[in-house]
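USER:
I wish I could look at a protein chain and see how it folds. I am handing you a single protein, as its sequence and its fold in token form. As I understand it, each token names a local backbone shape. I hope you can help me see how the letters and the tokens relate. The protein I mean follows directly.
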Amino acid sequence: MFIRIIIIYLGLCGLLKAQNNLIIVDGNGGQFWLFIDGHKINDSPQSIVKATHLLKDTIPLKITFFDKKINDITAGIYFLQKGKSCHNLEFTYAIEPLKDKNELKFISTNLLLTDTILQQKHASEKVRNFLALQQKEKENKNRLTEKYPAPEKCLFIIGDSLLERQIKYLQNNHIELNRVKDAKWFISNNCLNVSQTEKILSVFDYEDSKEKLAEFGYDYLIDKENLLNLLTSLKYKTEKEELKKFYAKKTIK
């Protein structure tokens, strides 16, 4: 009986001991290997790695990137809540660039779900939401710093409903400088024709803004040869002549 009680007690201790999961995500899509206590967690490099059933409060880890130009990350992860040990929780951290190196940034803590399917669905949804947020933050930063994507071959123009929503958005932004940045971001991330660009130009108050947007949009247009149709959007001779000169330079063979 005494031996049986000891076995039961040890079994309960094993169950009660802190068991937590860890998810590491690279929001930029970089692939890496995760090592915990010197043990490799994933056999092939991945951008999202999950380690399960971790029993310690402090986990020493190392992240080695597939891209050898990126320095390794060596850090310690603490599975604590309000300074106390915890269990049945899933901690998510993101790899984020900081100056000339990468660091781990805490994202969230969630309860572990008992149902395996629910666990997978929950983890996938959380990672998708995080990546979507990361992408949105990156796009906002690029928009504000005017870092636009390079022009690509344009195949299918956007629909009228999307264009109308963007026009309303631009109309509600009364600061011309911000409107220009927003319009450039929209033009550079979508496929438009000259007729649609003309509708966008109609939102702007200043002729200089219209002319500069017409020039900016040239490389993104599906019908570049019709650029001079935008002359009707300009009131003054000065801007009309500037657009003609721009088009002439672009089409010189």
DSSP finds seven helices and ten strands in the chain.
